[in-house]
Specification:
Elements: H1 3-25, H2 34-37, H3 40-44, H4 50-119, H5 123-141, E1 148-150, H6 151-169, E2 173-179, E3 187-189, H7 194-203, E4 212-221, E5 224-231, H8 235-238, H9 246-259, E6 264-269, E7 275-282
């Protein structure tokens, strides 16, 4: 409060206290003999006294203080709710930006592959690849906001993506997908596995002189869901450092958004060759 606001409060307190005491004194007008014993002014001021006036000021101050505390709490809760809503909106915007980094990257790579097939006269394979791309885009465009999806739906995208890559690599790419039936209804962030599988093919299988293998597994372990993607890789990648590329960094950020400190992600080269990405997240029923 400023000095003048404090003076105004004191003045208001005094005026209200006097007015209230005079109203209490006005009760004397209901007695029939008031006009015989006292004047009108005496009746109005009969309740006025230093002690009662002090009590009035204390009562006013107490009510004013309680009201101020309640208003402060309401204002604080309102500010906290606005801050949480702003944080939610910023997190959603950040997550959308992360997701948009993934989808165009995948789209451009696929379109480039289709263009290459057409240039080499492989129209049948290009048409097949377009069909799988169409399935992926239909699933993606249904989503208006970043969200979690059932693992079964995420696996459909991965299978369509791998079908696209099998057209490119022909017999050089072998695929193994093992999923625990109890994990199919679990929720996972959309486009979680596809960029990991894409990394396995781009940095592992693409550099293999012989056939390459990509393994994807998913299993439920109590209240946890474990997802693993492995590739046989190439001798060069065997000695590489744990992955921190854009795709893996993006995945970590999205996992942190959804699960905070309750997830685990390990990306590492394997001693036998190849690369592994293992993700453990809380199990959520779709």
């Amino acid at each position: 409060f400023s000095f003048w606001a404090l003076c105004l409060q004191i003045l208001v307190r005094c005026v209200l206290a006097v007015a209230h005491l005079m109203l209490i004194g006005a009760v004397g007008f209901v007695t029939p003999e008031w006009h015989a014993n006292r004047s009108t002014l005496a009746v109005w001021t009969s309740a006025l006294g230093i002690n009662r006036f002090g009590m009035e000021l204390l009562t006013y101050g107490f009510i004013f203080g309680i009201t101020g505390i309640i208003q402060f709490r309401i204002r604080a809760q309102s500010d906290a709710m606005r801050a949480l809503e702003l944080e939610r909106q910023l997190s959603a915007a950040h997550l959308r930006a992360l997701q948009m980094q993934l989808e165009p990257h995948f789209l451009f790579n696929t379109l480039n592959a289709i263009t290459t097939l057409v240039e080499f006269g492989r129209q049948a394979q290009a048409a097949e690849m377009l069909g799988h791309l169409n399935s992926i885009l239909k699933s993606t465009l249904k989503r208006t906001t970043p969200e979690k999806v059932p693992l079964s739906q995420e696996l459909e995208i991965v299978e369509n993506y791998l079908a696209i890559e099998q057209v490119r690599f022909a017999d050089r790419l072998q695929i193994q997908i093992k999923v625990d039936p109890g994990a199919l209804n679990s929720l996972v962030p959309c486009f979680l596995l596809q960029p990991i599988v894409e990394n396995a093919i781009r940095h592992g299988i693409a550099h293999c002189e012989e056939d390459g293998l990509v393994q994807a597994t998913a299993r439920r372990d109590g209240n946890r869901l474990r997802l693993e993607v492995r590739d046989t890789g190439s001798p060069v990648r065997r000695h590489s450092k744990p992955g921190n590329g854009i795709g893996l960094k993006n995945t970590r950020e999205r996992l942190a958004h959804f699960y905070h400190e309750t997830y685990d992600m390990v990306a590492r080269p394997l001693d036998a060759g190849g690369f592994e990405v293992a993700i453990t997240i809380p199990y959520e029923q779709a």
